[in-house]
Design brief:
The complex is a heterodimer of chains A (291) and B (651). Chain A has two domains: 221 residues, von Willebrand factor, type A domain (Rossmann fold), CATH 3.40.50; 50 residues, no CATH class. Chain A is 35% helix and 27% strand. Chain A contains nine helices and ten strands. By secondary structure, chain B is of the alpha+beta class. The longest helix of chain B is centred in the N-terminal third of the chain and has 37 residues. Chain B is elongated, with a radius of gyration of 38 Å. The two termini of chain B are 42 Å apart. Chain B has eleven helices and 39 strands. Classes of the chains: A alpha/beta (291), B alpha+beta (651). Chains A and B meet through β8, β9 and α8 of A and β2 and α2 of B. β8 of chain A pairs parallel with β2 of chain B, so a sheet runs across the interface.
Chain lengths: 291, 651
């Protein structure tokens, strides 16, 4: 955790809480409302007894006072199951400055895991490139958080390209139902069906957030002199005068970003662009504030 | 196609620079990884083919630009094929009419033969061509200036003096001809040089036009350069001496089997002759003039004539280095030793006979005459009271180049001198004063002058701005003052030239003092000149008639003026100047044949300049047109193309 989440960031995020919009069915009590009503520490309402109600729920004290059968209705708080997915493909290991995209994405996920763990939610971690590489099952507690942080600090080094469709398909299987799924990736899988699995994730009742991590140099192509550009996932090189192609490149990138956003939103998920030159807490604040 | 500066073609190596830069640029492009390279591929796929073409065009433009600049530096020109028969051109003929070209062969002088060659060339000229003719004898003359009428030019050739005596001025004539050609609007410019190319022509020293003008040489020379000349004449003895004056004549050139002799002519009449004794290629003859010969100049002729008769004649000045001094005694005395002019006359008599000699004539002031003054170089007024009637004569004498020396004494009236001769004098005499004690003289040129003392003086004040003080009294006052007046000089001396007021005549420095003053006042007179040089002579006046008798016996009256510039000096030999019909020895002069012109051995045309031609009528030769401007234009166009391609590449 020390390597990934700085103490300063950890303190600033300590007061933040995450409340899931949607109720989840968890086994553990937590701060999230449960759809299952019944015995619980938090009283919700009284209502008249109806045939079929569990007689154990009749409030006898109220019966003694009013001579009517009354049911005491409690609200259960359930534990959130959050699945954090980190793209560890080769392209994510690149950065124009000191921070690579994977470092930046790991920082975001670590902060999120920290917040969730503090409020008692269960957090699982999945890393992927062409396939699922590592998976940490959902748990809560400090020991689990520490283990998760170490995984984020030292993700497996991948030399593979991004294959979003296959990886997210597998992620659906591991994420269970009605939880929170946060996907951190540069989405550099330009195949048409790359983001289709997001719709299936949403269909399983998850609240899905896609954090699209991009380096500013990828967005702006700031180079001045002619260069020989090399790919990071085995693409052939190309010699280009950036000044000559910058305008068209930016148009292509803007189109790509817009396409990603459109597909994610169309699937019912939430899309956020995360530039690596922006402070990570800004991204998290926006994520948490907007619920 | 040719190149003016072929070594500059080395600059073509610079073509490698853009090529290497292109290759190195490709090899040394900075590398950059980029995960989003797929988007670059999408864009570049459509650009790549076009960029390759643009890059290639850029490389071609740069290489061509460098090549154009390198070629331009090499001053390329292209030869446009043309023929004299069908193309108008500007032709300048440099025609050597120096003395050597007057050599006779087969009944014609070389000048006549050269004229024939020139006219033959003229007849071949296409209609509308422009012809200039520059004569190359000294001084060079534009004989025909850019004329198209062939008949007129031919007529001009027939007017060239075929018996020229001029020195050679070929190089100056070439320069003049080139200037004429450059004035022409016709693009095809040709220079034809007609000469015997003897050493006197000096063609090797000429600067031939480098570009744009084609040069051709035509040698017109004698096949047997057999020529002799009177090389020098040395005088020994004295004209007035008992042995008379001996003339040692030296002849140079190839010996002739025919008997040769030197004939002496005095006043146009042959008076004696002497055979030439040959030793190798040098001949000698000696003639002796009777004592007391009145002639200032005689003429020698080598007989019989050879190819070049002009250099067989030589004028000899018998008294050319003599300074004629007229001493005007203002205080005559029956005892010659007590005359005012006694000491100066004695000093001139004992003057060393080295350098110039002095012919002295002494007159009492009342006997002064115009003729006496006019035949003198320097007139000394020694303590002479001034008569106003002399003023015009003195003014004309000094203005015409004579010199005047006024020495003080008790007969000098400062007021009269100041009023009458004020304009001529370098200063003004003031009242005479006697010194309490003798004062000494000072002179930087003659330090020994301080041994002389002066007991009385007529001080000189208000010296003219251009005056020179050559001697002073010990108190700094001027003792001897000089200045120039028109063509002559005037000097004033503040004390006597005899021993009345000073002991200067008794000092050893007296003789040098007098000689120095007279040498300076007499100046230098040119007595031997080159043909067609100008000679300054006194002009006629109402009372005296000045005439010049040329070697051929022509008599020319000089106009009325202080000085006359006489230019009719084309004849070789002795020129006598008559003053009212009498020989004026002072003004006689001779015109010598230019020595270099006597060598008739042709050296052939000079080393050919790059654009020289053997013959003017070679139709295979074309005119040179410079290509440099076009190459520079192309380089500029390529520069713009390169800039445009770079913009295309960036877009």
């Amino acid at each position: 955790m020390t390597h990934v989440l700085g103490p300063e960031l950890a303190v600033r995020l300590a007061g933040l809480t995450l409340r899931a919009k949607r109720t989840v069915d968890g086994l553990l009590a937590g701060m999230h409302r449960s759809p299952h009503r019944g015995a619980s520490a938090i009283f919700k309402e009284h209502r008249a007894y109806r045939p079929g109600d569990d007689p154990r729920l009749i409030d006898w004290r109220a019966y003694a006072r009013s001579d009517r059968y009354t049911i005491k209705h409690f609200e259960h708080e359930t534990q959130l199951r959050a699945t954090l997915a980190l793209d560890i493909s080769s392209s994510m290991h690149w950065g124009s400055g000191d921070v690579s995209k994977i470092d930046y994405g790991a920082t975001l996920l670590a902060a999120l895991a920290y917040v969730l763990t503090r409020q008692g939610d269960a957090v699982s971690l999945i890393t992927f490139d062409e396939v699922i590489r590592d998976r940490l099952p959902a748990r809560s507690g400090p020991a689990h958080l520490d283990y998760l942080m170490r995984m984020l600090a030292q993700p497996s080094r991948s030399s593979g390209a991004t294959a979003l469709h296959a990886s997210l398909d597998k992620l659906v299987e591991h994420a269970g139902r009605m939880g929170l799924v946060v996907i951190v990736s540069d989405l550099l899988d330009l195949s048409e069906d790359a983001l289709d699995p997001i719709a299936r994730i949403q269909a399983r009742g998850h609240q899905t957030v896609v954090l699209h991590v991009m380096d500013p140099a990828e967005l702006e192509l700031p180079y001045e002199q002619p260069m020989r550009f090399e790919g990071v996932e085995g693409e052939p090189h190309v010699e280009v005068d950036p000044q000559g192609v910058r305008r068209r490149y930016r148009e292509a990138i803007d189109t790509f970003l817009a396409s990603c956003q459109r597909r994610v939103v169309a699937a019912g998920a939430r899309y956020m662009l995360a530039r690596t030159d922006a402070p990570p807490e800004h991204i998290l604040l926006q994520l948490l504030r907007d619920g | 196609m040719g190149f003016g500066l072929p070594w500059a073609l080395v600059g073509l190596v610079a073509i490698a620079v853009p090529i290497l830069a292109h290759l190195l640029r490709r090899q040394k492009l900075p590398q950059q990884t980029l995960p989003t390279i797929a988007f670059l591929h999408r864009i570049h796929a459509t650009r790549a083919a076009r960029m390759r073409v643009v890059d290639l065009l850029l490389l071609i433009a740069r290489v061509a630009m460098v090549a154009a600049l390198a070629l331009a530096a090499a001053a390329p020109y292209r030869v446009v094929q043309s023929s004299l028969l069908d193309r108008q051109h500007a032709l300048a003929i440099v025609f050597d009419d120096s003395l050597s070209m007057a050599a006779m062969e087969d009944g014609k002088t070389l000048i006549e033969r050269a004229a024939d060659v020139s006219m033959e060339q003229l007849r071949r000229l296409p209609e509308g061509s422009e012809v200039s003719v520059v004569l190359a004898g000294r001084p060079p003359r534009v004989w025909v200036r850019r004329r198209s009428e062939t008949e007129m030019v031919e007529s001009a050739f027939s007017e060239i003096d075929t018996r020229s005596t001029r020195a050679g001025a070929l190089c100056d004539a070439v320069n003049t001809a080139v200037e004429l050609l450059l004035e022409s609007e016709l693009g095809d410019r040709r220079l034809l040089v007609l000469s015997d190319f003897t050493p006197g022509a000096g063609a090797e020293e000429c600067e031939w036009p480098a570009r744009g003008i084609r040069v051709a040489f035509e040698t017109v020379a004698t096949s047997k350069p057999d020529n002799r000349r009177i090389a020098s004449v040395e005088l020994s003895g004295e004209r007035d001496g008992p042995q008379g004056l001996a003339l040692e004549v030296r002849v140079a050139g190839a010996p002739s089997e025919a008997k040769q002799e030197i004939r002496l002519r005095q006043k146009g009449q042959e008076t004696q002759s002497a055979p030439v004794r040959w030793s190798g290629d040098k001949g000698e003859a000696t003639l002796v003039l009777e004592p007391g010969t009145p002639d200032a100049v005689v003429e020698l002729r080598l007989d019989p004539d050879d190819l070049l008769p002009a250099d067989n004649v030589r004028g000899v000045l018998l008294g050319s280095d003599t300074v004629h001094v007229l001493l005007v005694d203002g205080d005559p005395h029956p005892d010659p030793r007590k005359r005012e002019t006694a000491f100066i006359s004695h000093a001139l008599g004992v003057a060393p006979r080295i350098g110039r000699s002095f012919a002295v004539e002494t007159l009492d002031a009342q006997d002064l005459s115009e003729s006496a003054i006019i035949r003198s170089d320097v007139v000394v007024f020694a303590n002479a009271a001034l008569d106003e009637k002399w003023l015009p004569l003195i003014q004309r004498f000094v203005g015409g180049g004579g010199s005047l020396w006024i020495t003080a004494g008790d007969r000098i009236n400062p007021r009269v001198y100041g009023s009458v001769l004020r304009e001529l004098l370098p200063g003004r005499y003031t009242a005479t004063r006697r010194e309490q004690r003798p004062v000494s003289l000072r002179s930087r040129a003659l330090p020994e002058l301080d041994q002389a003392t002066v007991s009385a003086r007529t001080p000189i004040s208000e010296t003219a701005l251009d005056s020179i003080v050559t001697a002073r009294f010990e108190d700094g006052a001027p003792a001897m003052v000089e200045h120039r007046y028109r063509n002559g000089r005037v000097a004033m001396f503040a004390t006597t030239i005899d021993d009345a007021w000073t002991d200067l005549p008794y000092q050893p420095v007296f003789v040098p003092f007098v000689l120095d003053a007279l040498e300076r006042l007499a100046g230098r007179t040119q007595h031997s000149v080159e043909p067609y040089s100008s000679v300054s002579l006194p002009g006629s006046t109402s009372s005296q008639r000045i005439q010049v008798v040329t070697p051929s016996g022509r008599t020319i009256d000089l106009a009325e003026a202080d000085r006359v510039v006489f230019r009719d000096t084309g004849e070789i030999g002795a020129y006598r100047v008559l003053v009212n019909g009498v020989n004026g020895e002072r003004f006689a002069f001779v015109v010598d044949a230019p020595a270099a012109e006597s060598d008739l051995q042709s050296q052939g045309p000079p080393a050919e300049p790059d654009n020289a031609e053997e013959a003017m009528d070679d139709p295979s030769r074309g005119a040179e047109q410079p290509v440099t401007p076009w190459l520079l234009l192309a380089a500029v166009a390529l520069l713009f193309a390169e800039l445009w391609l770079r913009q295309v590449r960036r877009r």
